[in-house]
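Quick log. Single chain, no ligands specified.
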Amino acid sequence: MPFYKKFDKNRICIQDKNILLKGTVLDKATNSPIPYASLSVVDGKTYTQANTNGAFALSLKPEYQNGKIRVTMLGYITQEFSIADLIKQNTTQKEIKLFLVPDYKSLKTVEVHAKARKWKIKKVGYHIDEGASMHYEFYPSDTIKVASSGQEIGNNIHLNQYPAALRSVSFGLAGLSGVKLLIRVRLYSLKDNLPHLDLLPESAIIAIPPHHAGWITVNLQEYNIKLKEDFAVVVQWLNESKERNNSSLMAYASIPKGQIIYYRESSLKPWQIVKSTLIDVNSIGMYVTVLYEK
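-> predicted structure:
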């Protein structure tokens, strides 16, 4: 089973096999939060970024527990922290506090004039999610092995500004499925207005436990995807067709007007552009969350 977080209205967190470290990156001199600090596993692929308040949540594979986390931010000295020490700290305190020391450097005969960088997080797509009280966040797992290739359905995503950094993909589940769902999230470049090349360097598969109706968010920050043009986001169903159809799950809403919906029965079939009414499943929607510089 992969790690996942489950949030209800009280923001209750549940974790499985992976290690979840939550905390805040702070300025050691002022004790103030450091927004958008970068956190990564030394000699590993896991990566995340603190939010505007310096808060972070980093999911780690068990084999990383004897490693180190590197925290970097422009204007601060890069710091490495023992993961084993952070795990102990996380069990005795409400949250981890990671302190960075300001990097004061004296410049000779050089004047630097720069505007402060401002970042904005934006949801793009069909993201009217106020109607769902339950939100779940998952991280892809490389321990899930799937041989089958199921149907794929997704949307064309247009951002008003490029480049942008992809943070997550979210989609709605309308039914209370009685089976565990295996889902692969895929990102495609576009060619002739159809999905073309896969943009993800690895297969992003999640296992959703039974009875998880609501919004499913798949955290893709570790892949460090930089978006430079329009793309397609697709969800591929990997369960057997009988289980999938009995689940009565989701598709993509025909609102907003003019949105493009892609569909194909399997990776061996050609892509189609369809209307949501042609797909015999319930409809909520899909959106992506991106970060870009103002």
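The domain at 16-100 is CATH 2.60.40.1120 (Immunoglobulin-like).
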